Amino acid sequence: MIKIDSISKEYVMGDNKLLALNNVNVSILNGEFVSIMGSSGSGKSTLMNIIGCLDVPSSGDYFFKDENISNFNANKLAELRNREIGFIFQNFNLLPRLNALENVVLPLLYSGKNQKERNNLALKALENVGLKDRIHHRPNQLSGGQQQRVSIARAIAGSPKLILADEPTGALDSKTSIEIMKILNDLNAKGITVVLVTHEDDIAKYASRIIKMKDGQIIEDKKNVPN
Amino acid sequence: MSLTDLIYLSQKSLRSNILRSVLTSLGIIIGVSSVITMISIGSGARQEVEEQIERFGSNNLILRSQSSSNRGVSMGANSINTLTLKDMEALKNELPAISAIAPRVSLSTQIIANGNNWLATVTGTTNDYFNLGNWKFELGRSFQDDELDSGSRVAIIGKTVQKNLFGTDSPIDEVIRINKVPFTVIGLLDAKGGTAWADLDDTIVVPLKTAKQRLVAKKFPGDQIRSMTINVSSSDLLFKTEKDIDTVMRKLHKISANGNPDFVIRNYAQFLNARQESSRVMSILLATVAGISLIVGGIGIMNIMLVTVTERTKEIGVCMSVGAKKRDILLQFLIESLMISLIGGLIGIGLGLGVIFGVSEYFNWKMSLDYFSLVLSFVFSSSIGIIFGFYPARKAANLNPIDALRYE
Ligand SMILES: Nc1ncnc2c1ncn2[C@@H]1O[C@H](COP(=O)(O)OP(=O)(O)O)[C@@H](O)[C@H]1O
Ligand SMILES: [Mg+2]
Q: What residues are neighbours of ligand 2 (ion), with CB under 5 Å?
């Protein structure tokens, strides 16, 4: 599904150059559940953002579904994100003025679906994460776990093939974290590819493959038997 | 993303900060209300001037006699009549710019008819009087040449006189007694309505010769007359002709260039011009206020939108991460600034209407509201919103998704 071909990402700040990704090669297959681990600053988020088409590499090629998207323009990347990818963030990133349903509808607005279809899809997604009775609550009226479930519903509303979760449990207690991981597990069981960034071993163990990073490079890539 | 969705999202964020939205649109409010007031003052004045011209005729000068103070004790406005029909002939012959002159003698007197009594102003004149004064006939006709030449006892009356003597019945062929002299009514004039000074329809017109022989023989002996209405062939010649009349009259009456004249020339156009000029000055003033406040208002919108874009950088990043294109973000912020300016426009229209009604009630100044000014205000305020909202909106749309998302 994904092929990262010798990708580097360089940040230039004044005279300093920082190599956040250093010649990374990795492929992720359809239906895989991958955890990316590593200490803070090792380049996990940078890699995630490039996989998610939010950021572009300084060099190297990125193939998404066998298509080289390195030279896609901003609009084509936006379309790709909208159709194929769902994001889950550590701090949820919900829009504060919109209620749960409206937040979940947001990606469907940009894909141009009609109102009835949008609402049906959004309600189904909220039902999937067990929040059917909270659809008119605004983010500040929901707990952290509930907010993260809304953002999962937002990520899956448009039926993407790939879910990217950057430390989705980082702001949650361990009990809630387990609930969230179960939801991701279920999604993966339905055939959705999941890529997860975490620095917690317990969380990483849900995946079928664990990639370890250090100083912008992949230092370990091995199969895992989820418990 | 449909327009309804965009509007829905925009009103959400505007409503979250209502006070700020309204304060931002203050400049637009003032600008738009000034535009509306300005236009209605201008068109009100124009309309008033047109009505007055309709009433009194255009390009007319009034020449009337005036008792001057160096002729000893003034004996009232009507006591000395220095104008004569000879003056009239001389003016006609010497000044080709004059196309017609209607001479006039007048008195206020008791009218009796149909068992009713009425006090009216009686004018003795010629048929030119009707043409120059824009009088139309509702019934009957003007004077015939033989009636003018022989001094027939025929009269043409105004609507007010008809109402008081005959009610709604036709006065044609009825006999009225002016100063006990019987006259036959041959015409009824169309209503003109009142001015601030007089009811123009309270009038009776008879042939000049008849008036001089039978009604005002003592007051206007010989060929004396009270005044003349002089029509100038074109409005460009109005002021020059006014000067020429002064020169000719001084020569005829043997008054030196700096002596006190025994006549006065009224230029009604001058009065209308002054009225138009003062409303024009007012309009320019308001236009300046409108222009400045619209620009200041536009800058205010731009400023607030820049603040909004910065405040919502992270949100923009979130929208982009779920698939918003540049165009979606651009439209979103443009619609928001458009809505601010349209809210301002609407409040401004309300305020403007209030000012118009207030001013026209309080100062009795004619203001006319035209829909054009409403449309113009809408176009004005929405273009301000779009023009000044464009830069912030483009700034938002050009954000890098990842930079926007990471913004704290
Ligand atoms: N926008 C940026 N500008 C400059 N440096 C950055 C930027 N984003 C990330 N970095 C740097 O790149 C390195 C990798 O960052 P990141 O991928 O966020 O690490 P991780 O997610 O593994 O903690 C860090 O040293 C970080 O400081
Ligand atoms: Mg990170």
A: A 45
